[in-house]
Amino acid sequence: MKKIYFIRHAKAKKFCANESDFERVVSKKGKKDIKLISQYLKNLDINADIVLSSCALRAQQTTTEMLNILNTDCFVLYLEELYKNKTDEILKIIQMQDDSCTDMFVVGHYPYLLEIVNQLSKQQLRDIPTMGVVALKFDIKSWRDTLHQSGVMEFCIYPKMFAS
Fold it and tell me: Which terminal residue of the chain has fewer beta carbons within 10 Å of its beta carbon, N or C?
């Protein structure tokens, strides 16, 4: 059994003309959302053996803060390929991971995360909001066996679900 938690980075500050999209930082609201969602995952005792994260600054900040809250010291790979890449390339990266890992976080961007979630699961989503987490479970022994519609969605959470 393998699980992938697809995590869209936290809300970033608005795009400014004098900065690149790649260097956008997490906003104040984004920081609150990281704490909220990470605490929820911690309460469920969810953790990862490996984290594959986009190397865009907002994704790195999301990953770092989330892992601090989860109090974990798992292996993290920051990959340019997760910044703007086709779902087939992202799937190849997932399939190349060591089979000793059972739980994986993939931290990335819209629309690529939505596309790969919809490719890997029979359940189709319309959106993954910022700091949204989609958990897919796979009845496989090797990441190489992660195929089209082979995942079962365990949950999809996002910050507005917890708004009071």
Answer: C
Rounded to whole angstroms, the Cα distance separating 82 from 70 reads 22
Q: The domain containing residue 75 runs over which residues?
A: 2-10+26-162
What are the structure tokens assigned to 159, written together? 């910050």
In a domain, 31, yes or no: yes
Residue at 19 is within a domain:
no
CA distance 57 to 11: 12
Alpha-carbon distances of 69 from 26, 34, 43, 85, 138, rounded to whole Å: 16, 9, 11, 28, 26
- State both tokens at 43: 């309460």
Q: What is the CATH number of the domain that holds 126?
A: 3.40.50.1240
